[in-house]
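Re: that backbone. Tokens:
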């Protein structure tokens, strides 16, 4: 009989423990559920914010790509390029320094090509190398003749022929000298902006001419005729 009572008491205690355990479990589930509900909304909000940010980034990239496509090396507004140039290059001194640097870069490039031609075709005479170098300039000159005023094109053509003659007739310099020289001339251009600091508002050109590889290439192609236009026919723009 005593064993039966113990079993009854043990059963009652187990029932009470089980009831409390169940209640505690339900409380934890409810508590966790209540605390998790805001987290779910927070996660959803974060996900929506991330999606919106990704869409905005994609839209910006598409906008940048559209602006890049608007810049065409084969069809430019030369006068607009020139006016943009004046925003940072209206002083006479900086244009002279930039012209020296550009001619130095062109001379190094043509000299490297002339050295390569001499190495590959050693039997060519000086006149033949001169003609070949001039022929290699035809694609560049063709782009210019369709986009630059004829007077500026003729001035540019004269400069190109002068550089070609120098590259062929002057004593050959090792290629390893010319390659660092190109970098040096570019650094020289950057330094000139520290000496000549006059600038004008360029904001009206920023939407179309955004910094990037396309703009860099565009300016590299048209920088020489722009500089010559300023120095030869743009005297009214000198500061």
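Recovered sequence:
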């Amino acid at each position: 009989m005593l064993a039966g009572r113990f079993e009854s008491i043990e059963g009652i205690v187990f029932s009470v423990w089980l009831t409390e355990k169940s209640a505690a479990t339900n409380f934890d589930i409810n508590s966790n559920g209540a605390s998790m509900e805001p987290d779910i909304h927070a996660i959803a909000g974060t996900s929506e914010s991330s999606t919106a940010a990704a869409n905005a980034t994609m839209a910006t990239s598409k906008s940048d790509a559209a602006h890049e496509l608007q810049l065409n090396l084969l069809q430019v507004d030369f006068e607009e390029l020139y006016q943009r140039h004046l925003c940072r290059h209206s002083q006479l001194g900086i244009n002279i320094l930039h012209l020296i640097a550009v001619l130095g870069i062109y001379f190094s490039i043509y000299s490297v090509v002339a050295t390569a031609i001499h190495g590959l075709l050693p039997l060519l005479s000086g006149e033949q190398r001169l003609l070949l170098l001039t022929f290699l300039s035809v694609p560049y000159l063709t782009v210019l003749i369709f986009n630059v005023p004829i007077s500026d094109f003729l001035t540019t053509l004269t400069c190109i022929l002068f550089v070609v003659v120098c590259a062929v007739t002057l004593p050959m310099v090792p290629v390893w000298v010319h390659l660092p020289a190109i970098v040096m001339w570019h650094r020289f251009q950057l330094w000139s902006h520290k000496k000549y600091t006059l600038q004008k508002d360029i904001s009206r050109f920023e939407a179309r001419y955004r910094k990037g590889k396309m703009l860099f290439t565009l300016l590299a192609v048209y920088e020489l005729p722009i500089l010559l236009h300023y120095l030869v026919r743009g005297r009214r723009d000198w500061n």
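The mean pLDDT is 81. The radius of gyration is 37 Å.
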